[in-house]
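Example for tutorial group B:
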């Protein structure tokens, strides 16, 4: 068993302020997760049902991003604006302020949804993609099932008042991770601070993103605000620091300012009270093993999955990673054969085992050299 040297952590650097008390969050429900490992860093009633309000729009954009990724839709495609979509902009809701019978590109509709939180843009995009908003909502619910959002049901594309439009902060965190992980080419829209809509028949309209954390230069790059009088204020947010990302979702904040400040407290809690370590990158990180009777003295190993691990800082001194195998690997060795394991421990408790596979084929030496090597080992004990 070999300890992976770069994961023997220098404990003298973290002997102070290892952890602080859990934050006091002024919200009805909240959750904080590590993006790489899904470890829950904080939770406050994470499974109570909420009205997700405009956080619903995350799923609306996921449906569009799916089609864009599959080349079944283009950012330059244009959709006609129906009376139903136009009336959403006249009803006092958050709007992009589209005009009836106008033609608007998919990209502008997406920015109108993400940045301006336009309910009119949601309906226009839904009708353009699926023919009707109800058809589009069916697509949203199927996608929610695929993602694993077991306590969610969508009733419209925008999140406006409807008792059948419900979710939980846990499900929204799951949806948020899915968004960031699967659509890196489009997620940047969520970091935009403003959107100027050069509308037909009027002066351009510039609207700021309602996510106040985007303006603080802290590394927050999304995700989506929400507000309904019955639910008060909500926010799905994400912060990236170097290679680490944290997602926080909260609902029931009293004001817009509280929504931003409390969400930032959640994000900072996740960053400062835990660490996430990259142990192996799928098909990329390599580990070296000695061989026995192989034409090459070393065989390289790899993992078929990304291996990350999140540790509370208070537990960091008891966190250990070992590369385990049974002595030199006897040749012949087939490519992709399992040759060892990464084992992760907290104190003496085994937390995770990940197989390591041979990156290459290693042939056995010829008979005479094999005989000589074996004889040498019996006499001198020297592999």
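The residue assignment follows.
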């Amino acid at each position: 068993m070999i300890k992976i040297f770069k994961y023997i952590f220098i404990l003298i650097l973290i002997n102070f302020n290892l952890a602080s008390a859990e934050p006091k969050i002024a919200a009805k429900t909240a959750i904080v997760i590590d993006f790489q490992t899904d470890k829950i860093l904080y939770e406050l009633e994470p499974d109570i049902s909420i009205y997700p309000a405009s956080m619903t729009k995350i799923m609306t954009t996921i449906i569009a991003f799916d089609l864009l990724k599959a080349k079944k839709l283009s950012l330059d495609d244009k959709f006609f604006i129906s009376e139903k979509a136009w009336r959403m902009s006249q009803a006092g809701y958050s709007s992009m302020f589209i005009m009836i019978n106008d033609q608007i590109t998919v990209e502008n509709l997406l920015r109108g949804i993400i940045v301006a939180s336009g309910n009119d843009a949601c309906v226009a995009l839904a009708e353009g993609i699926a023919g009707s908003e109800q058809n589009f909502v069916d697509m949203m619910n199927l996608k929610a099932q695929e993602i694993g959002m077991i306590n969610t049901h969508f009733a419209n594309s925008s999140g406006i008042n409807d008792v059948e439009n419900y979710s939980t902060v846990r499900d929204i965190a799951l949806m948020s991770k899915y968004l960031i992980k699967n659509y890196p080419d489009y997620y940047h829209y969520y970091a935009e601070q403003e959107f100027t809509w050069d509308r037909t028949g009027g002066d351009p309209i510039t609207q700021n993103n309602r996510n106040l954390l985007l303006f603080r230069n802290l590394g927050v790059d999304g995700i989506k605000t929400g507000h309904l009088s019955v639910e008060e204020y909500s926010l799905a947010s994400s912060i990236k620091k170097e290679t680490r990302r944290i997602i926080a979702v909260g609902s029931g904040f009293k004001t817009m300012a509280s929504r931003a400040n409390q969400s930032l407290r959640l994000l900072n809690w996740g960053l400062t009270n835990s660490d996430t370590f990259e142990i192996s990158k799928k098909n990329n990180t390599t580990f070296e093993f000695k061989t026995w009777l192989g034409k090459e003295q070393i065989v390289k190993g790899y993992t078929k999955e990304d291996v990350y691990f999140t540790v509370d800082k208070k537990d960091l001194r008891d966190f250990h990673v070992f590369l385990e195998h049974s002595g030199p690997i006897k040749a012949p060795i087939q490519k992709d054969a399992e040759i060892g394991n990464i084992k992760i421990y907290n104190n003496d408790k085994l937390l995770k085992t990940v197989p390591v596979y041979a990156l290459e084929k290693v042939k056995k030496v010829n008979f005479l050299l094999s005989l000589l090597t074996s004889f040498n080992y019996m006499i001198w004990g020297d592999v």
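The domain at 25-272 is CATH 3.40.710.10 (Beta-lactamase). Compare this with the pattern of hydrophobic and polar residues in the output above.
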